[in-house]
User: Which sequence fits this backbone?
């Protein structure tokens, strides 16, 4: 059944993708609620991220809605999953149980599941948060009175359900959101806030957030290390029927080499994305179907994987995660399978990860909404800047390979033609000049080849870094949406407490869990600033160094060509 929704954020469709352009504050009609295919005000039909809209009761007379805490972030969700946003105007249903991990095929090499000739790029939507929901998830709580609901139809949905005592008298615990496809719900964050997640946290698995002069920061639980990627090799199995490229990883803390295929990286990316809902995971290099094993492609993918691995090694949380350490160190096939199953059955994923997060006991006193708004504006501006540089640099690289190369080679050919014409002089009156002109032509043809080859040294590394950050930036709208909805639950629960409809015990517990989410978001924001400063410094230094080296080579070649005339 079609439903109406108001657009919270502008979304720019990618050409040819079947997506739909939607603009902030316009109303759309969703045709299929689960796929979020809809029609905009201009009558155009297509797909759009459901997190960019919110349900309304009627387009002609929309119910009161609170203004968004954060400004719109257009165009950033190109790489984000099409997942739906929480609905605050409908009585909630019980949260779904976490999806059980897929059963592993018995016997055989675990690699068989991920051969290069059996790619499957489709990902199934499934709830995250492997921790088991507590008893509070199994009971039916009483909502506010009918009179209060008639006066404020949208206020008290999905707020507080974590108390172990049943609501009695004039107190009420409010159930979760009806929209099971919102990131807030699907990630398990809502269940965590409601106190419904229970899981054992092993010793040494806690992540600590500390207050610093720069604000909340992730604590460092281990020594810093690096990881090299060496010697990509084309390997085969089943007597050559299946081939793949294996990359050799060597972490600095043990020097032991492990071989990993691209499909292993793909599996790891899925695990990390599922586990760390508030930490953006950088995108992997794009897949290539044709020309898969060309040398240039293999070398470029290795360079991209180096950036990806470096990002994980430098992140204080990701670098110490069990699944990453297992990926980086395991050399035994049996132990690998055990670790693989453990990662896929991990309870501390999504919202469950917050159970293993220790935030400062002091409540947040900073203007959290103001900080989120400032960061949202920064993300929007940086995303626009990164996209602009990426597009401009890519176009410049194409001109190097195409027009620049052709023009210099054409000029060189013209000089050579002139020299060859002079060479037809039977007297050879100016043989030195003739030879110098021919050499000049060869010099310009060589400059053309230099232009064509140059992007691999300066532009390609820059584009690889920008690719990483385009993916990271694309993750922040969902992260900020989770924080936004966490703040909304906190504010609405305070209203319930003021009205005597929520106990102070429940309010205190929800506030503590809300602070863990907010501290986590702020810690990741601060780390992002730290990481992007180092990354872009390195990127710009390499670009300018390679540019100087490139033009210096051209100058040296031209000087050598000039000397031929000076020596006549």
Assistant:
């Amino acid at each position: 059944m079609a439903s109406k929704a108001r657009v919270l954020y502008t979304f720019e469709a990618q050409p040819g993708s079947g997506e739909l352009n939607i603009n902030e504050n316009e109303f759309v009609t969703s045709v299929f609620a689960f796929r979020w295919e809809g029609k905009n005000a201009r009558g155009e039909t297509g797909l759009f991220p459901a997190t960019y809209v919110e349900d309304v009761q009627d387009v002609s007379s929309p119910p009161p809605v609170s203004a968004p805490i954060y400004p719109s972030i257009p165009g950033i969700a190109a790489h984000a999953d099409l997942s739906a946003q929480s609905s605050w105007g409908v009585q909630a249903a019980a949260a779904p149980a976490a999806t059980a991990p897929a059963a592993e095929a018995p016997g055989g090499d675990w690699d068989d599941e991920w051969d290069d000739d059996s790619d499957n790029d489709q990902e199934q939507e499934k709830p995250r948060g492997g921790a088991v929901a507590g008893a509070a998830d199994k009971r039916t709580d009483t909502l506010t009175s009918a009179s209060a609901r008639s006066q404020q139809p949208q206020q008290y949905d999905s707020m507080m359900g974590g108390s172990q005592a049943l609501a009695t008298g004039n107190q009420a615990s409010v159930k979760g959101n009806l929209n099971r496809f919102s990131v807030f719900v699907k990630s398990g964050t809502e269940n965590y806030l409601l106190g419904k997640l229970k899981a054992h946290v092993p010793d040494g698995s806690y992540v600590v957030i500390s207050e610093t002069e720069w604000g909340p920061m992730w604590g460092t639980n281990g020594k810093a290390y690096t990881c090299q990627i060496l010697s990509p090799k084309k390997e085969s199995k089943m007597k050559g029927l299946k081939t793949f490229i294996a990359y050799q990883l060597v972490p600095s803390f043990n020097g032991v080499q492990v071989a990993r295929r691209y499909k292993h990286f793909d599996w790891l990316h899925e695990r990390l994305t599922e586990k760390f809902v508030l930490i953006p995971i950088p995108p992997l290099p794009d897949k290539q179907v044709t020309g898969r094993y060309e040398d240039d492609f293999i070398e470029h993918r290795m360079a991209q994987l180096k950036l990806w691995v470096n990002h994980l090694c430098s992140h204080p949380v990701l670098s110490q995660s069990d699944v990453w350490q297992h990926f980086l160190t395991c050399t035994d096939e049996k132990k690998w399978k055990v670790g693989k199953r453990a990662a896929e059955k991990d309870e501390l994923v999504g919202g469950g990860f917050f159970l293993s997060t220790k935030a400062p006991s002091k409540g947040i006193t900073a203007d959290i909404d103001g900080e989120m708004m400032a960061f949202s504006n920064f993300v929007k501006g940086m995303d626009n800047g990164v996209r602009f540089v990426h597009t401009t640099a890519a176009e410049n690289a194409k001109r190097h390979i195409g027009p620049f190369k052709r023009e210099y080679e054409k000029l060189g050919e013209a000089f050579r033609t002139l020299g060859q014409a002079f060479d037809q002089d039977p007297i050879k009156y100016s043989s030195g000049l003739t030879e110098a002109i021919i050499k000049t032509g060869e010099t310009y043809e060589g400059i053309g080849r230099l232009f064509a080859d140059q992007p691999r040294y300066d532009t390609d590394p820059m584009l690889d870094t920008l690719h990483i950050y385009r993916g990271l930036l694309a993750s922040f709208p969902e992260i900020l949406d989770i924080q936004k909805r966490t703040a909304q639950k906190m504010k609405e629960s305070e209203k319930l407490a003021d009205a005597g409809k929520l106990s102070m015990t429940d309010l205190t517990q929800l506030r503590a869990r809300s602070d863990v989410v907010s501290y986590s978001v702020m810690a990741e924001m601060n780390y992002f600033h730290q990481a992007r400063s180092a990354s872009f410094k390195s990127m710009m230094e390499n670009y300018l160094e390679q540019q100087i080296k490139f033009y210096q080579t051209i100058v040296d070649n031209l000087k050598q060509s000039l000397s031929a005339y000076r020596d006549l």
In short: The longest helix spans residues 504-566. Residues 31-35, 58-127, 135-172 have pLDDT under 50 and may be disordered. The radius of gyration is 29 Å. Residues 227-346 form a domain with the PX Domain fold (CATH 3.30.1520.10).
